[in-house]
Automatic annotation (TrEMBL):
Domain Peptidase M3A/M3B catalytic residue range list: 171-558
InterPro entries per record: Pept_M3A_M3B (IPR045090), Pept_M3A_M3B_dom (IPR001567)
CDD domains with a match to the protein in the record: M3B_PepF (cd09606)
Gene3D superfamilies: 1.10.1370.30
Necessary cofactors: Zn(2+)
Cofactor note: Binds 1 zinc ion.
UniProt-listed PANTHER family: PROTEASE M3 THIMET OLIGOPEPTIDASE-RELATED (PTHR11804), PUTATIVE-RELATED (PTHR11804:SF48)
Top-level taxon: Bacteria
The protein, known as: Oligoendopeptidase F
Claim: Transmembrane is one of the keywords in the record: no
Stated family: Belongs to the peptidase M3 family.
Keyword tags: Hydrolase, Metal-binding, Metalloprotease, Protease, Zinc
Taxonomic lineage from the root: Bacteria, Thermotogati, Deinococcota, Deinococci, Deinococcales
Organism expressing this protein natively: Deinococcus aerolatus
Amino acid sequence: MTAPLDRVEHKLHVPQQATHWDAYRPRYEVLLNARLTAADVPSWLARWSALDAELGEVGAKLSTHADLHTDDAAVQERHQAFVAGVMPPAARMGQALTEKLLAVPGYTPAADFALNYRRFRDAAALFREANVDLGVTHEQQKNRYSVITGNQKVTLDGQSLTIPQARQRLDSPDRAAREDAWTALTVSHMEVAPELDAVMLDLIRTRRQLARNADEPTYREFRWKQLDRVDYTPADCRAFHGAVQDEVVPLAGEIVRGIARQLGLESVRPWDYNRSNLLDPSGRASLRPFQTGEQLQTLAQTAFAGLDADLAARFGQMRDGGLLDLESRPGKMTHAYCQYFPVNNEPFVLMNVVGSAEDLRVLFHEVGHAFHGFYSGDAQPLLWNRWSPIEFVEIPSMAMEFLTLDHLGHVFNDEELARYRRNLLQGVVTFLPWAAQMDAFQHWLYAEAPEEVGIAELDAKWLELDRTFHNFVDWDGLDEGVRAKGWQYYHIFQVPFYYIEYAMCYLAAVGVWQGARDDAAGALERYKAALRLGNAAGVPELYRAAGVAFRFDREYIRGRMDFLKQQLA
């Protein structure tokens, strides 16, 4: 075990006594039984926030540790015991404390708590006792996805590879090598597809029951309230799907087919298309700026130092504190994310790097989330006021992908940097159809699909959408049963309806970068100021603070695509 991994394991250590409800129950009961007047509320909220932070940090560490060890039954059992034994009484206590707060006569929340007071009121109205234990079932079902995919292996060229390691082969300039990698990945995915089908059917039933218990007509309505989506409607999302189909899909097809023509390809086959890293039109190998996770950390440290001294110091804190786990390993969950440990205001980044330039971009993305945690945590003492509404939460990450562009001279030469920049801009264009497809699929699944929907209907709907949003990929002669399983994706299982936010924030991040081209220092200060507002401000206000507008309508999308076309030209 390497020294950095030792630090990670130490950071994720949770004492056994902290995994039981009895470690928290007496202190929650003190809060519940306290005499509470309007004047008492601020100090009472501070104590509640600190206790929620302590309990939430234990849950976050157990969850992250489970993601690092999907093949360790004892680690998995410890996490699931916490989910089953602590989450239900904590949820019931949270509802009781919320009702106590809402009943305080004469209390008017301070300006920095007004939004969350309203959110507390709305969440209390959505609470149902029947959903407490059902929520545990929901978490256990979601965890099955992580265990199945975390233990997936790919056999390629006589080697056993993790999913990220095999995906890296899709960037090869050798078309035969790409096809071999795609075929091997397909074999691996189809081996676990029946298991994931079963998990999905269980999740659909559970999610629909959660909605029925809360007296909501569909899971979409339930989830809309759960996610506090108050600034836009499902109809706005539908309009977004149509705008992407008309304004973005043709541009994405033009870019992808143009690259194929330059490479002498008659069509774009599935192994010729990686939306995150399009093929080089000159047939050059993908950029590989580092080999190890430690090297990636060093490259990023220098980039952050060039951008801003305080950002560099925050990243250094993560490096020294065991708050980064970057390498891909067997048994490790294959996704990338930023976790948060609130007691000491510490973000944690999990990745699966293989040495690609795409890894560099993803690190900037995830550390952008970490900066959000740091700055909102510094500025907002109450736990509920940290981070932000989900419609803003991807701007700190996606904007960081762009803000670091001018600070990579130590990573790439001029020609390589131009390639990296082009890939980043193209990636915005090719991401939007995927985001629209993911969102459209979930609107259908949770608001329109028949009550007894089966896997065949899910597969058919995904095929229909993929033919709409990715009509530039040629599947002729291939088994479209493989294509139909594209919905078996992390967010569909783990965070339903959380995806259109990526599109909103990518459009905004391009605007942040556009502003930085005219005033780099001003754009960075606006970025930090917006992060400090945390969850105490609404979505439109946060966007304005960052120097952009909260929009994702057709006209706005068309303008962003025109700007990107100019930059790519």
